[in-house]
Amino acid sequence: MATERCNHRCIMCPQPPILQEKDKTPFNLKLISLFDKSTQEIGITGGEPTLIGDNLFVLINHIKEELPKTAISILSNGVKFADKEYAMKLAKCRHHDLQIDIPLFSDIAEEHNRIVGAKTFYKTVQGLYNLALFHQRIGIRIVVHKQTYKRLPQFADYIYHNFPFVAQVAFIQMETVGLAKENIEQLWIDPFDYRTELREAVLLLADRGMKPYIYNAQLCVLPEDVRPYAQQSISDWKDIYISECEGCALRNQCAGLFESSREIHSSHIKRIEYISSDISCVN
């Protein structure tokens, strides 16, 4: 965690930002030095990691030095990368295996801005273009909820036409903690009820040669033909399975649920008795 501060206040944020904190960089540099040398990947997150300024590049270069074979994943809202010089500094780190994942929530600027609580849609878009200009590997993330699901197919089409350079597009089932829990009435929709829009968006991108993924979703709730795009994306320490999952033929391939979803989850979760088709995950 680079910082708990953020320049957005997303209505479904699972970890609400704080306003002030002690600089975490010295602690994180020591932490990186203690990592197992065989660590496969390090995630840099927040809050918004770019709020630590050039210290972000200090962290990346320290990881390069201490863990030269380790991949880096950065989760950022992308706003700071609208500054071309800042995007260039990331590229100058010349990390061999780094991906930056940036959330975008609508193809309509006003909708995205309302969801993130800031007028930053076009800065995020410019950030995506600047990162692409410097040949950085980028992913787009879309949290699906009541306010985003209806335009998923149109949004997928927008991404295809405007950001064909992205490495992947992840459709993410919402985690119901933090601000998401506070705003649950405005946000919650049973994932079963948006399966048609999700399917159309995923297949639209896949058919056009892009890489769509589905995060945090239960396989039994997904249409069969998009199950291969689902990833086991929930961290082990907060991943659960409920009684309906017992004896399911797909349990070992399913993401399960967040611990926070024990009480709030799809009413259509059910045990699958047999595997009717190959649902090997798409990589």
Radius of gyration over C-alpha positions, nearest whole angstrom: 19 Å
Q: Regions with pLDDT < 50 over 5+ consecutive residues?
A: none
Strand order of the largest sheet: 1-2-3-4-5-6-7
Query: Which structural class do the helices and strands define?
Result: alpha/beta
Strand tally is 9
Strand content: 5-15%
Question: Percent helix among the residues?
Answer: 25-40%
* Rounded average pLDDT: 95
> Separation of termini?
26 Å
Q: How would you describe this structure to a colleague?
A:
With 283 residues, the chain is α/β, with parallel strands linked by helices. The chain has one domain: Aldolase class I (TIM Barrel). It is built from nine helices and nine strands. The strands form two sheets. Strands 1-2-3-4-5-6-7 form a seven-stranded parallel sheet, covered by helices on one side.
Which helices and strands appear, and what pairs or packs with what?
Elements (H helix, E strand, L loop, with lengths): L24 H10 L6 E4 L10 H12 L4 E5 L8 H9 L5 E6 L5 H8 L4 H13 L3 E8 L7 H11 L5 E6 L5 H4 L1 H4 L7 H13 L4 E4 L14 E2 L7 E2 L16 E2 L25
Parallel strand pairs: 1-2, 2-3, 3-4, 4-5, 5-6, 6-7
Antiparallel strand pairs: 8-9
Helix pairs in contact: 1-2, 6-9
